[in-house]
Amino acid sequence: MGERKIKNMEEFASVSGISRPTVSKYFNDPTSVRASTRARIEAAIEQYGYRPNIYAMNQNRQLTKNIGVVVPYLADPFFGEIVRVIERRCIEAGFSPSLFSSHGEAEQERDILDTLRSLKPAGVLLAPLGRLSDKSAIEAFCRDVPTVLFDSNIDGMGEAFVGSDNYSFVSQTVEYLSRTGEPPSFFEMKTPANPNANKRRRAYLDMMERLGLEPHVLQIDGSGWAFEEIGRKGGHDVLSRDALPTNTVLCSNDRLAIGFMSACFEAGRKVGRGAGHDLRVASHDDHPFSRYTCPSLTTAAHDYANVSGHAVETLFRLIESGGRFQTREETLFSARLIMRDSA
Amino acid sequence: MGERKIKNMEEFASVSGISRPTVSKYFNDPTSVRASTRARIEAAIEQYGYRPNIYAMNQNRQLTKNIGVVVPYLADPFFGEIVRVIERRCIEAGFSPSLFSSHGEAEQERDILDTLRSLKPAGVLLAPLGRLSDKSAIEAFCRDVPTVLFDSNIDGMGEAFVGSDNYSFVSQTVEYLSRTGEPPSFFEMKTPANPNANKRRRAYLDMMERLGLEPHVLQIDGSGWAFEEIGRKGGHDVLSRDALPTNTVLCSNDRLAIGFMSACFEAGRKVGRGAGHDLRVASHDDHPFSRYTCPSLTTAAHDYANVSGHAVETLFRLIESGGRFQTREETLFSARLIMRDSA
DNA sequence: CTAATTTCTTTACGCGCGTAAAAAATTATT
DNA sequence: AATAATTTTTTACGCGCGTAAAGAAATTAG
Fold it and tell me: Which of B51, B74, B100, B101 to mutate to test the interface with A (most CBs of A within 10 A)?
């Protein structure tokens, strides 16, 4: 690199000694040209630092090499991790990921889908808001663009869903908690934004019944995505009303648990197991910060690596299959119980 | 919306009864056409749901309407918030933000700058990795693309920098801590990734000298972005070595403090002020989770709103000025002390 | 109401690349 | 070495839009 600046593919083709259509073919798919030709082109790229104009490239291509990645909420470190893996895999496979966050708002989600449509992506990985999502907008989008849903499912939408098996989270925590101490109450938001929450509540009720235990669901007020504050306020409410039937609380998710534990601390209730502790708290998700709560939070971990990895692979297969699957695929990965000090 | 599908601008122009060049002008800048014309075009957009092909639009435009937004680390909720504000403001101003995260890796940062170059953005908001950044790559990039740095500064690069005044963080916390109790030691990573860390250490040393107090810096091992774990390990090390000269610790940033407090809890040391507590911990950043540590963390808050708001405004001014400022601007916003329960 | 000004229409060209078709060159097969 | 199969070159067109220039139309000023 260092020669004079190449203006366009015509010029690049001439300095590299390869015809323009072949160069164009190379940029569309490097493996589609003979190895010796590929080497010459790559040497020239190295030497001249040429990159084709992506706008001109994508204008006529029926399908671009773009992949849209949409998450509901960026300030949740959970998605930060997922996105990191997804982006890396996309780039390795020769795609250009475009990242979008709905920031918890349905209107934003709609706008993002609109924007994505005009990006003509080869495929989209979409983690929808959930309950708040404009279902019909998502449905219409999925009809036009090959889409794999992840994290939270919406029945029938997209060609596939990849996520965690909520039942496996709850069954493990409930089993563990009731085996090692008093049975848990279930602490959750009254109107949860995420459909996973409903699955978890049902799993809780089911597991308690199976174990022959009396279920007890604590539904707290609050809406939106400020889970910690909702958990804290709800926690204070529950504690002051003395609404806990046992000394064990199972939170629907870690962020709620972080808030709840903060309320416990403020109310002078000691969280942990064994002598000298007032109550046990456990939760689900293995949020990146759950290791650092005081005490560290016993939780059930997403199989982050498999969820993100399999979501990407599914999308690649979908793209290769021309954007449609015969039948909608649903893949759920099991959780892993992480025993720490809170329960 | 609901009529037949419009294929291109030619067709849209004819159904809307406006000539194509005028329609083109409208999409480039809606205010550049007469109000009555604008109304007719917008009615037609509404009716036919037409959106111009962004690839064709951007191909010939010397300057696109894209704005690149680059953050060093997505899994940090701090940046999630910043990005939310920035994106909203960009969209309101008629730009299309493209979000990128370096995920803590210099190579990724370089690749992102490469990608951004080919996006031909009108401007870029860049929060660099800091110490790890490939300075020469950033410098070369800033020469080609109008760039405003934010969060962490690199001397002389970009046309402007917008961030927080690290001195104001530390001076407030040091002043508060030494006024209300024993003077603080400063707890930080030996080789911090972020240049803000160095400014904070110097501010600590300076403030302690001013107050006529003996400074004491605790530099702990570890590199990378897993601050909580580094803080926890370093915390255990410091506590077990009995290396604290006073009962007060000031952490360089909240994530480190979260780890440190986790170590304190594990070691049975009670954090907080007043009787019955072993040590006080304070920190800087007002990380979204700092309210929910146990005890809640006393810290100095970024002026999030002003930093993100002013960064965007500065970039808009820069774009309007043709991409160059006479002299590099530096804007620092002061921190606000948030007194909670940890100190 | 006329003149000056602003806005719009008409016409026309080009951007950088995708892509199709036919011919030429290269490589593989027998 | 001759034939078949693959890959590349040549030639050519078009995508959807930006944009420039000249003239027509609409608006504003006087």
Answer: B74
